[in-house]
Amino acid sequence: MSLIHIANIENHFYLWNMQGKNKHELNPRVSTDCVIFGFDRHELKVLLIERDSFGREEKVLALPGDLIYEGEDLDKAAARVLLELTGLSDIYLEQVGAFGSLERLKKESDKEWLRNIREEPNIRVITVAYFSLVNMENINIEPHSFAKAAVWLPVSEVSELAFDHYEIFQVSLKKLKNKIQNQPIGFNLLPDKFTLSQLHKLYEAILGRELDKRNFRRKMLKLNLVVSCAEKQQGVPHKPSQYYMFNDEKYNELILEGFDNFGF
Question: Where are the beta strands (DSSP E) in 124-222?
Answer without folding.
Answer: 126-133, 147-154
